[in-house]
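Entry 12.
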Amino acid sequence: MAGMELRVTRRQFGFSLCGFSLTATLGAQDWGTMPWAGPATVRKVYLAGERVHWPKPDLDLKRDIAETDARLAEVERKHPKDVRFVGGELLRSEAEVKPWAARAGEADAVLILPLTAPTGPLTQVVDALNVPALYYSRPYAGHSWSAIPDLRKAGKKVDVVASSSYGDLDVYIPIFRTSHHLRKSKVLVVAESPRGRQEQAEAFTGHFGTEMKFLTPKDMQAVFDGADQRQAQQVADEFTRNALRVLEPTPKEIRDAMRFYLGITDLLKKEKANSITLDCFGALLKKQLPAYPCIAWSKLNDQGLYGVCEGDLQSTMTQMLVTPYAGVPGFVSDPVFDLSRNEVIHAHCVAATKMKGFHAPSSPYFVRHHLETAEGATMQVLMPSGETITCARFAGPKRFLISTGLVTGTVDSDRGCRSQIRTQVSDAEKFLQNYSAGLHRVIFYGDLVKGIERMGRLMGFEVVHEV
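Predicted 3D structure (tokens):
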């Protein structure tokens, strides 16, 4: 019945947790060797004036550096899969900056460590960088922390921490890892023509370093044909057994969906890519695709990869920013406002089952037709309720829209899209009137606002609160 909240029995939910790990089926170890999967490389650089006044004229710089290096080694040991500190040069004059930058090598971020006042060539160091920089100011280590907000306002990718505790660096470690992830990731953009998306792709590549490659819907037929039919049937059988129920799709529609998934997985491995977005509506209406991609996208998202609808690069980059940072997949949605209830329903025909995290239990699902076309195979996922979500979207690489809400239930409706969650927001009217940057929003479970604000300061984009 349209608009009803969907309930599932404890037995059904428990059955769904038996799980269906395509990751294991397809060799998850292969993804761990890909360029985006390793720890971030963070280059340390120490700054001191040529003449030292503060904190004391006879400061032993070598001793200070050695002590700081030892503490940073402890931080690295706490996060061995996420960060690797390198470098550690001491710069005291402007003339030293250019040679340092030339030999700095491949770094995902820079950790600036002041030692004295005067601090040395801070502005010149920040100007020489095209990666995020974190200025870590311990007490009495100079006064140049006061320059950081103005440098950031001037468009520099720089944030500041002032603390005696090295533990305050911990919240930045996943951001460093995210910077590495974006710089080493590759997106396949499937559209009949790159026109209209090429400029956007170049802007994101220029800002974050993410590689983009354009393909056409016609290329998808060869991807589909190259997948093993017998394996597709085995995967389809397992997928069907683990569903709460199969409603409309035929066995062939489900098998074709899984064959497409297997083919896309092979394509991503061949291209050393971790993301794909396809202009699906146009291609489906023109009968250019051999199968519906919805289940393939759901399964990629469940593995920490990215399958994104409608050739939407801004939603793709939103997922690629937040997922590696928070460890949760995104749900691209078409929001539906109901001001009378102060609610926003988020609906789409692609949803991951691991919305609370990749190691969390899977949500139960039905196998359905794509609602708007009444054909193909997709999933109606019963996502968790009673949880805070973050609603987000890039509006170009330098502007990021954000809000939060509370999931109050799932919705079973014959209108809209298959997977739907009902959310309560602080001010639906304000959200509606402030809406911009296209229809889609991306939903992530958890309140991620503070972390995204840190990422904005460090990575050079403005975070705009929509509500």
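Annotation: The first strand starts at residue 4 and ends at 5. The chain has two domains: 4-33+185-465, 38-178.
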